[in-house]
Amino acid sequence: MHASGYRKLGKATPQRKALLRNQVTNLLYHGKITTTVTRAKEVRRIAEKMITLAVKEKDNFTEVEVTAKLPRKDTNGNRVKETVNGKKVTVYDEIKKTIKKDQPSRLAARRKMLSYLYPVTETPKDGKKIRSHSKKVDMAAKLFDEIAPKYADRKGGYTRMVRIGARKGDAAEMVILELV
User: Fold this and answer.
1) What is the pLDDT of residue 69?
2) Residue 151: count of CB within 10 angstroms of its CB
3) What does the pLDDT read at residue 161?
4) Do the beta carbons of residue 166 and residue 34 sit within 8 Å?
5) pTM of this prediction?
6) Residue in 36, 79, 27 with CA at minimum distance from that of residue 168
7) CA atoms of 145 and 55, how far apart (whole Å)
8) CA 107 – CA 36 distance, rounded (Å)
9) Fewest CB atoms within 10 Å of the CB: 16, 30, 67, 75?
10) Alpha helices by DSSP H, the chain
11) Is the CA virtual torsion 64, 102, 155, 165 positive or negative?
């Protein structure tokens, strides 16, 4: 047995870190991944800690009402201009909206998550207009708002490993790692 606290997975440190970050991100985004047993065990450790953090901080925010200035748009979505003293300026509307303001500990948790997870970009399923219709997914928000509420009354054990037999090629034992 190794005294060290983690598996090296036969990779150099940067490679291993990249692999784990990638798999953890995919697990949290898709809800399940297929991988080898040893990788799954490592991914599980990190993912569970992250979910625990999300559960702990999920309600730790205050609602704040802010006034935002939004440029007024016409029906074609162009900004409405009006002439003031011979200058064309955009017309702004003041809009009141409520935002969630993180408490310091939740902000720290959010930053910790974002420092580990890779940025996820959602592309349209049909593959049309990829540039304009892709949107960035806020993974921290997803953890707080979608994943954490599901596990609020669970004491750990947020993932399940289902063995699916050996991989063709090198007969490595494969599992599906999924969020319970």
Assistant:
1) 87
2) 19
3) 96
4) no
5) 0.85
6) 36
7) 9
8) 34
9) 75
10) 13-30, 37-57, 104-116, 130-133, 139-142, 148-150
11) positive
How far, in Å, CA of 171 to CA of 164, rounded?
Answer: 11
Task: Find residue 83's DSSP bridge partners.
Answer: 88
The CA–CA distances, whole Å, from 136 to 29, 112, 114, 140, 175 equal 12, 18, 13, 12, 29
Residue 83 CA: distances (Å) to CA of 88, 91, 128: 4, 10, 39
- 81 burial type by CB count under 10 A (0-12 exposed, 13-18 middle, 19+ buried): middle
**Tens-place pLDDT, residues 69-96:** 888 888 888 888 888 888 888 888 889 9
Contact 27, 179 (CB under 8 A): yes
Give CA 73 to chain center in angstroms: 31
Q: Which two tokens stand for residue 86?
A: 């011979």
> Could you tell me the two tokens for 106?
């939740």
The single-letter code of the amino acid at 35 is T
Radius of gyration of the CA atoms of the chain, in A? 22
